[in-house]
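Quick one - first record:
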Amino acid sequence: MSTTALADRNNNNSDDPPPQTRGSSGGSRGCETQTEASLSSIPHIILLAPTQSYGQTLANSPTFAWFVKDISSWQMEFRLYEYDQTNKQSRLVKEIKDENFKSSSGIMVLSLSNLELLVGRRYLWQVELVCDANRPSANPFAIAAMKVVSVPPDLKKQLSQSNNILTKAHLYNQADLWYNTLEIAFKSKDEPTLRELRKSLLERVANGTETELREQTKVTLINSQIHQLQR
């Protein structure tokens, strides 16, 4: 998607409005055949991110995650833009579109190295499946908004007093730091408490989808296999 198209999106949230984003891909066809697509009306891409507000992070190199429905493996493209709230323009910061960057059915968790995002800045990130390189307008894609924030003094003190990863995850969650919570929930060693936290995050994502799809989406996300990616 062009930076102009991204910049033209708006949102009615009067507090700190991000550009209007779409956390899940539109349409029902996706990259699969019609027979495969008809098995489920769940979107082909669902970003694990808030859809009506900026998802917040303390990290200057956050972890991103999304769900891919298609059983077949497809070429993926990831883009990260810095968004200027004042002039409504966006600038490409990071792009991944190499031949080894391919989808797997389930939840994909992307860790990025050498990424230095700045506190106070706003970003947009996008995932696209390349069904047909000759018809990019038909490719399913989804976009989410993110803001990098500084750590509040009280939270900084609480974090410094604990080495327990579960405690930190819940502190992040209570502070509405979506991406910090997500990173621990999806990258740490699996255990019951983290499974519950992961389930809670996935339920929040499902609740942001169309009403008639929420229960089906929730079940699908919770039962999805998790794939770790490193770039």
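second record:
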Amino acid sequence: MSQSFEITTESAKAAPPAIVSLMHVGGMTPADWVTILTLLYLVLQIGLLVPRYIDRFRRYWEGRRDES
């Protein structure tokens, strides 16, 4: 194997523990990061779903108004 491939492989193996260590030194535990990422995920999901539900609600009310 080439030396650059070995360096890349070993770097990829060492990256996750190094990232966790850096986050912990930065003052946040992995549990804190999981909480933040979960909240970010929820905000993104809500941001994607709310416009869809508003559109459906408007179409529903427009359909009801046309029936009257």
